[in-house]
Design a protein that fits this description.
7-stranded parallel sheet; 6-stranded parallel sheet; 13 strands
Length: 403
């Protein structure tokens, strides 16, 4: 049985003001404000309440709440040099390193500087080796995928066996660690992602329905930006197109809208009931397109291993959308259940399409699910709540390091 620490049991009082310095290291990229950007950016925004924060990432130009360092390269050596310099200049008490590359770089930098007083806390958004393994036999280049599997297995293994505390973004991660490595982790805290205030607060919504020309069709929105290295969103796009083709003759009832992709990047012929909006550069436009949609779709095949889908699901819930998802689209969202908060389908295109059509014709019937999910989001999934819990973990690990 994997032992996972419970954040509720932490005996830590959060001070109104702390003199602790926190260096957040991640692959935050302001040119792509989704995916790997989300967790470090929004946690950092609320962690400044408890720490003096500095953000270090690929491109941190969007960080308007704290000092930052933009590395500009994904190379390990560049990250190590940047963290060493930040240790010298910022003198952090705690380094909070998110994902594998930043974690390895932080571990190496602390060894190089022979830092004994600075504690390191790791953050695993996903278990990368398992993702590569699950996709190994369904990608165009299995050899390349296998090489990535080996590299990430070794890299995450180094971090796991370093003995530093780990904050995991989902409960499946500790289980996978105990299955893939000869270790029973006991210093892992499961803290999922949150949602932003602009999705929860109706005052951020514009008065104009961006889908007015597509009405009276019900709008099924799919968020699928192009992300670095992982093809999960590509798989969701392929499945969405197949579902749209299946329902094309009902285009007056249901229309699919894809955010984050351009139609000219799609090589196959597209059905008439699907629209590609591309990347929406203004945050207010993204919020409005979610708010005015009717259904949030997570069409991920099993081999996608869609760890990042939880961000999309939480955004849909916060925007009071009915979520329709395959099982894989709900990875690491253990609190949300079929027929209580959402509709979970199988993986076949006809099954997903039939569920969507039934929902489009009877949307009011599912309003209790929407309300239940939205209430849970408000109570437990704001970024401020998540940041408070993580602040307790960071301070607890710092306290234990002194003992």
């Amino acid at each position: 049985m994997t032992l996972v620490s419970d954040p509720k049991n932490l005996d830590v009082q959060l001070p109104d003001v702390t003199n602790k310095r926190l260096l957040i290291v991640s692959t935050l990229d302001s040119s792509q404000p989704f995916g790997a950007f989300t967790r470090p950016f929004y946690l950092g925004r609320y962690l400044i309440k408890y720490f003096e924060v500095c953000q270090l990432g690929l491109n941190c130009s969007a960080v308007d709440y704290a000092p930052f360092v933009s590395v500009g390269s994904r190379s390990l050596s560049s990250y190590v040099k940047a963290i060493v310099k930040s240790i010298e200049e910022f003198r952090p008490d705690i380094i909070y390193a998110q994902e594998t590359l930043p974690g390895l770089a932080a571990l190496m930098a602390l060894k190089l500087k022979k830092q004994q007083n600075c504690s390191l806390v790791l953050d695993f958004h996903t278990f990368s080796a398992y993702e590569y393994w699950s996709r190994l036999f369904s990608v165009a280049n299995p050899f390349k995928e296998f090489v990535q599997l080996i590299k990430t297995y070794i890299a995450q293994g180094v971090l796991i066996f370093s003995g530093n505390p780990i904050i995991a973004a989902g409960e499946s991660i500790p289980r996978l660690i105990s299955q893939w490595y000869p270790i029973k982790p006991h210093n892992i805290y499961c803290i999922g992602n949150g949602v932003t205030e602009d999705l929860l607060n109706p005052e951020f919504v514009t008065e104009t329905d961006p889908y007015e020309v597509l009405r009276p069709a019900k709008i099924v929105v799919v968020v699928a930006p192009k992300t670095f290295q992982f093809p999960s969103n590509d798989m969701s796009i392929s499945m969405t197109i197949e579902i749209a083709k299946y329902l094309e003759k009902y285009k007056k009832n249901i229309h699919f809208v894809v955010i984050g992709r351009d139609a000219d990047k799609i090589e196959e012929a597209l059905p008439s009931n699907i629209t590609f909006l591309g990347f929406l550069p203004e945050r207010k436009d993204f919020v409005s397109h979610l708010k005015y949609a009717d259904i949030g779709l997570l069409p991920f095949p099993k081999q996608a291993v869609a760890g990042g889908a939880r961000n999309k699901a939480l955004d849909y819930f916060a925007s009071s959308k009915l979520v329709v998802s395959t099982p894989e689209g709900l990875r690491c969202l253990e609190d949300f259940h079929h027929l209580q908060h959402l509709l979970e389908t199988g993986y076949s295109v006809p099954e997903i399409a039939n569920v969507l059509m039934e929902v489009a014709l009877n949307l009011e019937k599912y309003q209790p699910l929407v309300e239940a999910a939205h209430t849970m989001i408000q109570d437990r999934y704001s970024w401020s709540v998540k940041a408070e819990i993580i602040a307790k973990i960071l301070l607890e690990t710092k306290k234990l390091k002194k003992l």
